Amino acid sequence: MKNYQVAVVGSGPSGASAAFHLAKAGIKTVILEKEILPRYKVCGGGFVYRGRKNMPFDVSEVVDIEFNKIDVYMGDDLHFVTERENPIVSLVMRDTFDQLIVNKAKELGVEIIEDCKVKSLNKVDGLVEIETTQGLIKTQFVIAADGVYSQVAKMAGWKEDTRTLIPALEYEIEVNQADFERLSKEIRFDIDAIPAGYGWCFPKKNHLSIGVGAILKDDKKIKEYCADYIKFLGIEEILSIEKHGYQIPVTPRLDGFVKENVFLIGDAAGFADPLTAEGISNAILSGKLVAEAIAQAKGDEEKAAKIYTDIIEDTLMPELLTSMKLAKVFYGSKIVRKFLLKNYGQHFSEAMTDIFMGERTYPKDINKKIKEKLKGLVF
Ligand SMILES: Cc1cc2nc3c(=O)[nH]c(=O)nc-3n(C[C@H](O)[C@H](O)[C@H](O)COP(=O)(O)OP(=O)(O)OC[C@H]3O[C@@H](n4cnc5c(N)ncnc54)[C@H](O)[C@@H]3O)c2cc1C
């Protein structure tokens, strides 16, 4: 049986980031990953600047294209453009992007065990024994970074009924030269490309990543909507298409983030932004925060749990709760959405771009802000 101080389950951006920071603090860490790396991850691969600027190393080598400008459309009549000096969104393929973070963690001494699925957790003599497809692992702390369907969270006793998962489709499409040239000039979001959601078209090096997300709830017609969106983009010829679907958690868990030395981060905790479904930056941030909490607590389990819980409650939770309220208002009614975008679309796009850039956060007291907005538009 192998022993570690921390076992991180999952090698996505949250897990790899946690492992990187733990190793940097001199903590003996292993990553357990069920796939063989590098692995494909269903994702648009839009990495916003608030995440990129806080990376502890340069990620340029795995960025396909950077966009300093984004285009938001609603139907044929509304179009808003925002522009910044630094890249608002860096487009990546998740296999190479995630692998870069894993490699950086490995350089610092993290052990990576691939093809290693976690099957069960047991508390034995105050330590956690993890049964995996590659044998038993013993550890003091477990970090569940195993994504939206987190089995580790279930094994550790979290309930599934406190969160909302939404379906999202992402197709990797090769199109003809003319369509690629036309569509690779911009990174576009199409509000209402699907009911209560949006479509996106993200150009990669030599293909397009096109997808749709139904933000408020499961919608069985999502495949039809995606087909309609591809038509709407005016794509004449599809040379190849890979269709993928997955879910995104758009509400954080409400039954805590730590139980019995198991810490939740990233999608396992439900840290994707409810309004935009953007999850990479908070996944990476939560990985850093959990590592700092464990390092600061110097082996004291209760202290580590308290530091992590407090920092999440003080920083990420108020933002996520505000974003949840905004998502309800925004996607809840097409009439309201149209009214808001028609009258304040540019202002709204600028505010969202500032959030993507990490230059502002969602307002904490949203109810007060909405009242102010009704008087004179503040957000
Ligand atoms: C269609 C779609 C488009 C998206 N587009 C964007 C976007 O453009 N920008 C953005 O910021 N976010 C986007 N997201 C959200 C983003 O992909 C997630 O928020 C992000 O991947 C969360 O990272 P994570 O590390 O928490 O989990 P993941 O990246 O899901 O990593 C979890 C890892 O755990 C492993 N694992 C799972 N179970 C086990 C087990 N039992 N044992 C061992 N290993 C296990 C998995 O193999 C995986 O490698 C999108 C999501 C979807 C579905």
Automatic annotation (TrEMBL):
It is an enzyme of class 1 (oxidoreductase). Pfam families: Pyr_redox_3. Keywords: Oxidoreductase. Its EC number is 1.-.-.-. One of its GO terms (molecular function) is oxidoreductase activity. It comes from the Bacteria. Transmembrane segments: none annotated. This is NAD(P)/FAD-dependent oxidoreductase. The lineage of its organism: Bacteria, Pseudomonadati, Bacteroidota, Flavobacteriia, Flavobacteriales.
